[in-house]
Amino acid sequence: MSTLKNDTFLRALLRQPTEYTPVWMMRQAGRYLPEYRASRKTAGSFLDLCKNPDFATEVTMQPLDRYPLDAAILFSDILTVPDAMGLGLYFEEGEGPKFERTLQQEADILKLTIPDMASLQYVFDAVSQIRKTIDGRVPLIGFSGSPWTLATYMVEGKGGTDFLTIKKMAYTRPDLLHRILDITAQTVIQYLNAQIAAGAQAVMIFDSWGGALSHHAYTEFSLNYMQKIVNGLTRDANGSIVPRIVFTKGGALWLEAQANIGAEALGLDWTVDIGEARKRVGDKVALQGNMDPAILLSTPEAIEKEVASILASYGHGNGHVFNLGHGITQWTPPENAAAMIDAVKSQSKQYHQ
Ligand code: CP3
User: Fold this and answer.
1) How remote is the CA of residue 204 from the centroid of ligand 1, in Å?
2) 94: which residues sit within 8 A by CB, 6+ positions away?
């Protein structure tokens, strides 16, 4: 494997000194890029892109070829895991992801098992192929959904609902939900460790729906399982730590608790001031975030102002990875993403002297 030419992102996650604030964007490979839309058309569908390592590599590289980003992220989806568990993932045009089968009946939940990782080999093949193609330009991030977030899709059959089916299960049959979460957490540990073995240099756990939980339920049904995962992850082939980022969207109320589960970094959405967040977590973790992706729909001037405000709020010192507070939207003009990245690069040097 070639040596890493730009390890700024990994150093920031470990709160080591860097020359500037590294930057990448959640969903950086995606529909806002015309080259992504062209690849998706050639491949046939989004899932065809994910399941073919050549296409997954091609689209992972697209944002890196356009912008001076400091990290690449594996092109895949968090829902490959429930798909491998036999639930039948599909996408309908214009609608979000859906599952053919759901986990609501006790008999189905009792049948759930950890899938054979061979059924996810296409993901690990994509990781190794991307590592070869990146050739040490920047580190590659692997990822998974959190057990809670994956369970919302497995129980509800789709995303973005009011979560009443899974919440009813949490309050009436917590034993059944804990069984789903436990098997999913064990699966995610194997899945992320296989990504690490294939070459992932940092890993991120997306808890996109953790913010829907009540205060106590968040710890019981989401955070505890993310902690199990963090504890179950291995080092890389050289024995170096593979930094772990935990991101609960809508979870800024619980940052102190998140900072105690052993992860190196926390993701922040846009609902919290990053300087305040830094004070709350102290020197326990690095912070990644937290610009509202909607700002990228405005003007380069507004974007530069917002970048300045986030950098100033974080202030001097190490441990900040600049990112959006959630995925870039498909309506973002690509030149506005460039304006953000350039602004981070040029404005952040003053905070690293
Ligand atoms: O960041 C990247 O560039 C890596 C790729 C990536 C995708 N999904 C590609 C994708 C990552 C890291 C994900 C994670 C993911 N997938 C999450 C967690 C992060 C988050 O957004 O909260 C979730 C909840 C999912 C599930 C999922 N997949 C949804 C809700 C959707 C539909 C939403 C949408 O934007 O249409 C997807 C589809 C999806 N995943 C697309 C991409 C590029 C769009 C598919 C297309 O090309 O039509």
Assistant:
1) 14
2) none
Nearest atom of ligand 1 to the alpha carbon of 31: 47
Q: What whole-number distance in Å separates Cα of residue 313 and Cα of residue 173?
A: 44
pLDDT, tens digit, 9 for 90 and up, residues 95-149? 889 999 999 999 999 999 999 999 999 999 999 999 999 999 999 999 999 999 9
Three-state DSSP state, 147? helix
Record the tokens describing residue 98, joined without a space: 């859906």
CA dihedral 263, 242, 208, 100 (to 10 degrees): -130
Closest listed residue to residue 30, CA positions, set 16, 5, 50, 53: 50
The neighbour count for residue 3, using CB atoms within 10 Å, is 6
- Residue 174, Cα to own-chain centre: how many angstroms? 27
What is the C-alpha to C-alpha distance for residues 149 and 284, in angstroms, rounded to an integer? 25
| Digit-coded pLDDT (tens) for 288-339 | 999 999 999 999 999 999 999 999 999 999 999 999 999 999 999 999 999 9
Q: From the alpha carbon of 249, which atom of ligand 1 is closest?
A: 22
Q: In which residue are the tokens 């080259």 written?
A: 35
Amino acid at 134: I
Q: What is the pTM of this model?
A: 0.97
- How close is the Cα of 7 to the center of ligand 1, in Å? 26
Q: With contact defined as beta carbons under 8 Å apart, do 79 and 97 qualify?
A: yes
- Return the SS3 of 310: helix
C-alpha dist (Å) from residue 82 to 113, 252, 280: 11, 27, 35
Phi-psi region of 199 (alpha: psi -120 to 50; beta: other; left: phi over 0): left
Separation between Cα atoms, residue 133 and residue 135, nearest integer Å: 5
Residue nearest to atom 39 of ligand 1 (CA): 77
Find the largest Cα–Cα distance for the chain: 60
Q: Which domains does the chain have, with CATH numbers?
A: 8-352 (3.20.20.210)
What pLDDT was estimated at residue 1?
52
Report the nearest atom of ligand 1 relative to the CA of 27: 1
| Catalytic center residues | 27, 31, 40, 77, 153
Measured CA to CA, the distance from residue 164 to residue 158 in angstroms comes to 12
